[in-house]
Write a structure and sequence with these properties.
The protein is of the alpha+beta class. Helix content is 44%, strand content 18%. Helix 1 packs antiparallel against helix 2.
């Protein structure tokens, strides 16, 4: 049972003669009983009871539809009418806008993100005192795995999460970014410097390869990148999580095929890809 379950969430089955209803939460039953009493009072005792019968019929239909919409349960078991206070707070325009200009106050955006500073070492500091660290990860799971490999990965992942301290949180971020071509560009540069004969046509071919990598592959073509954000109450817990992650990567590749610690600059790039609005300019880098 969920620890968030109250007595009103307890489900019972109603039975009349040989008919049984599906299990209903007590709060749902009380909601509809209250609706019946309110509707009866409106039709029989309220000032609207003197209205023509056609108006009363339309009123009952409208109340029934409204009650059905507001009484519908969400996936978490809450009823729709419980979301009305949040909706009323969201209606004002100032509650739906967060100014992020350089000249605007940072408190609205800070309340959403919660990040106070990103150090050069990659340590992320939050306003509530927590610290975090970003990792670039590549997993091993695939839909084309054999059953034995799949079971081995599942067992390895299960054993890993059983070792995690309850005080830390592990959040995976999936972004769609331009393909990384740093190593390919470095290879072309190394090849260019190793040329013994500086033939103009050969140099033009090398420049064309560089333009394709930088402007096309690294600018227009996007791929999925996954990152792991480890957040802990303090540096001691964060270092323990880092040692656990490093030991997992060194001992096995079932869970992570690659796990790279990001510094401050790389971490800021990841956060920009998550929080920054997409640019309207045409992507591309100068060679």
């Amino acid at each position: 049972m969920s620890i968030d379950r109250s007595r009103l969430d307890h489900k019972i089955t109603l039975q009349a003669f040989q008919l049984k209803s599906r299990p209903l939460a007590i709060k749902v039953i009380l909601y509809w009983v209250g609706f019946v009493f309110v509707t009866a009072w409106v039709v029989l005792q309220s000032p609207l009871s003197a209205a023509p019968w056609l108006v009363l019929v339309l009123l009952v239909i409208w109340m029934s539809i409204t009650a059905a919409v507001l009484g519908k349960q969400t996936k978490t078991g809450d009823m729709k009418f419980m979301q009305l206070p949040a909706l009323l707070e969201y209606l004002p325009v100032k509650q739906r806008r967060v100014m992020t200009r350089l000249g605007s106050k940072p408190y609205g955006f800070l309340s959403i993100v919660g990040i106070k500073d990103v150090e050069a070492s990659g340590i992320i500091r939050y306003v509530n005192g927590n610290v975090g660290q970003l990792y670039s990860v590549v997993g091993s799971a695939s839909a084309l795995l054999f059953e034995g490999d799949r079971n081995a990965i599942i067992r390895r992942v299960d054993n890993f999460y059983q070792k995690i301290d309850n005080g830390t949180s592990w959040c995976y971020l999936t972004t769609k970014e331009s393909q990384r071509v740093f190593q390919q560009i470095a290879g072309i540069e190394h090849q260019n410097r190793a040329l013994r004969h500086r033939d103009p046509e050969l140099l033009a071919l090398e420049q064309e390869k560089l333009d394709v990598l930088v402007n096309d592959v690294g600018g227009h073509f996007s791929s999925l990148h996954q990152y792991l954000l480890v957040r802990a109450p303090g540096m001691k817990e964060l270092q323990a999580a880092h040692r656990l992650l490093r030991a997992e990567r060194e001992n096995s590749s079932l869970m992570f095929r690659r796990c790279e610690l990001l510094n401050g600059a790389d971490g800021l790039d990841v956060l920009r890809s998550v929080y920054q609005a997409p640019s309207k300019d045409k992507p591309g880098l100068a060679p």
